[in-house]
Amino acid sequence: MDAQGRGRGEAVDPADQWVLNPDTGDYELRLTPSAEQPPTPSAPGRSARRRSGNGERATVPGQRGRPDPQSSRQPRGRSSRQLAEQQSGRRRSKQKTNKKRALVWTGGVMVFLLLAVVTGGYLVYQHFNSNIRAVPDDGAGTGGFSKDRAINVLVIGTDKRTGAGNEGYGDSGSVGHADTTILLHVSKDRTNATALSIPRDLITDIPDCPTRQSDGSTKDIAGTPGKRFNESLGQYERTPSCTMRTITELTGVKADHFMVADFNAVKTLTAAVGGVDVCLAKDIDDEKSHLKLSKGDHTLDGEQALAFLRTRKSVGFGGDLSRIELQQQFLGSLMRKLKSNDTLTSPTKMFKLADAATKALTVDERIKDINQLRKLGMELSSVEMKNITFTTVPVIDNPAEKVKATVVVDKTKAPQLFSMIREDISLTEVKKQKKAQAAAKLKGPRAASADVRVDVYNGGAPSGSAQEAIDWLQNSEGVLKSSNLANAPEKVAKTQLVYAPNQADQARQLADLMGLSASALKPTTKDAGEMEPMKLTLGPDFTAAGTPLTPPSKAPENIQRVEADKSVCAK
Q: What is the pTM assigned to this prediction?
C-alpha cells in the first residue's frame, strides 16, 4: 500500500515515500500527516514499530515528541568549540555508518540479478514477495546456503522469446534453453568470488533428472550423454534443477540455489538502473542481434542492452565464446553502476530496481521468500569488486567435428580451475586467504613410511582406483601395511583420510605421499589401537596414483578472465 491507497498523495511516486533512516540504516515509509488521517502516537522522538505475521519488524513513522526546551542549553564544563567539534565528529561518523549500511543494503543488488534489496518495511515485503516466482530444486542442490561455508549460486539466462518485442530474436518457438549460465562461487570468508561462465555449446553429459510435476508426482527425465550444455534446460521438459545436476556432473560443485531470468529481465533491469555503460573498440553493426553502435562509450538499456548481450558475429572470433566475454564486460559494468553513489542514495532508483529484479527472476523454492533473498544478498555484499573474477570453462574445439560448431572441456586446464572452486581458492590474491592457506599447512613430525598403517576404500573414484593406489603405495613408497577394502559404505565428495589423534604422524606422512590437503584430513577424538589402521577413502578427485590431490594455488595459465573492477572495451 502507498499514499494513493491511503487516500492522499495522488501524484506521489510510491518509491519516493521510502526514505533512509540515518539512525537505523533502514528504508522506511514516510507519509505526510493530514487532518483526515492523524498520525499514530508513539514514544517521543522515535518511530513506532509493529511486527508482520512472519516476525519481521516493519517501521511506520510515528508522532515526534516536542523538543526539550532544556536541550539547547550548553552543558556545564564544555566550551562552544568543544561542542562544535563533538557534533562535527558525530556527523562524520554517521555519514560513514550510513554509507556502510547503504552498501550492505544493496550488497545483493551488485551480484548480477539483484539477489536482495530490502531490509525493512512490511508493506514493501508483501509487495516484493508477491513478485517472486519459484520452482522446485528436486533435491539437486545442497539444501540451502549457510553462513559457515562457501556459497554457490547458479544464474541462468534463458533464450525464451516470450514477451513484447522478443519474437525477432532467433527461434521464436524456443522452450527456453540455458543460453547464458554462470556459476557464482563466493568464498567461505566472503573476501572473494569467482563467476564461472559455462559455454552453451559445450558438449557434456546431461544426467538423469527426477523432476517434480505440478500434481506433486515425480517424473524421471532420462539423461543424454554427449549433448550441448544448453539442452540441460527446456529440452524434454527439463527444469533448472536438471541444469544444477549437470553443473555438478561437470565441475564437481553442488550449487546451493539457482536463479533464472529471460530476455525481459535484461530489458527491465537495465532500464531500472538508468542504463549500463559500455565501451566499444570499434564500430558494431550486427545483423543477427540488430545492434548498431559506433566506436566509443555508450549507455545502454532496454532493447539495446539485450542486443548488446546477444551480439557475437561482430566481436572477437564471432562465436559464443566471444559473446561470453562481452557479457562478462557488461555484468562488470552493471555491478560498478549499482555500487555508485547515484544508485545507493536514490530510494526511487532502489525501489524500481528491487521491483524489476523480483519480477524478473524465477528462483528455487528455498529462496522464494524475499527475506531469504535478503539474507543471501547480505552474505554476498562484502566482496570487493577487485576480488570478483569472471572466467570461462577452458575449452577446445570439438575434435569430432569437421565444421567447428561445438566445444569440449580442455582437460589440461579445466580440472585445475574446477578444483580451485571446489577447494574455495581465490583467483585473485587476497591477503586474508593467503594467511589462512599458510596456517593450513601440515605441521608436526612424520612417521616412517614403513610404519604407516592404512585401509584404502573406493568412495567414488574410477573403478580399480583402490588397488591402483595400494600397488603404488607398496611398490613405490614403501607403505607395506596397506590393504584394499574395495568399495566404501558411502561415496564421498572428495578424497579423505580418517585418523585417530595418536596416528597424526602417520596421517601427515601419508598426506605428503598422496598430496592431500589439510582439509582432506579428518581426525577422530579417540586414540586407535596399536594395530588399528587409518581409513583412506578415494573420491572423484582421485585420478591416478602418484598424482597429488592438493588443490592448485593459482589458476591455469592463459585462461580467459577479467576482474569486475576493470573496464574493458569490446573488440
A: 0.70
d(C-alpha 359, C-alpha 187), whole Å? 28
Closest by alpha carbon to 155, among 108, 117, 189, 119?
Answer: 108
Give Rg (Cα) of the chain.
28
Cα 387 from Cα 385, distance rounded (Å): 5
Q: Is residue 344 a contact partner of residue 336, using CB atoms and an 8 Å limit?
A: no
50 pLDDT band (50/70/90 cuts)?
A: very low
pLDDT given at position 221: 97
Cα 332 from Cα 390, distance rounded (Å): 8
User: In Å, what is the CA distance from 311 to each residue of 417, 454, 494?
Assistant: 27, 56, 39
Q: Are 509 and 447 in contact (CB under 8 A)?
A: yes
Which residue in 422, 425, 409, 420 sits closest to 539, CA to CA?
422
Torsion (CA) 519, 520, 524, 530 in degrees, nearest 10 = -140
Confidence of residue 128 (pLDDT cuts 50, 70, 90): confident
Q: 3-class SS at 324?
A: helix
CA distances (Å), origin 477, targets 135, 302, 391, 480: 52, 63, 38, 9
Least confidently predicted of 63-72, 89-98, 125-134, 357-366: 63-72
Residues 6+ apart with CB under 8 A from 29: 17, 18, 59, 60, 61, 121, 123, 124
Among residues of the chain, what percentage have pLDDT more than 70? Answer: 72
* Residue spans of alpha helices (H) in 361-503: 370-380, 414-422, 431-439, 465-476
The DSSP code for 412 is T
> What integer pLDDT is reported at residue 79 of this predicted model?
54
Kindly tell me the number of DSSP H helices and DSSP E strands found in the chain: 13, 27
Highest mean pLDDT among 68-72, 148-152, 269-273: 148-152
Q: For 22-36, 180-194, 448-462, which range has the lowest pLDDT when averaged over its residues? A: 22-36
- Cα torsion through 227, 551, 197, 336, rounded to 10: 170
Residue holding cell 533464472? 260
Residue 109's contacts (CB-CB under 8 Å, 6 or more residues apart) are 115, 116, 117, 338, 343, 350, 353, 354, 357, 377
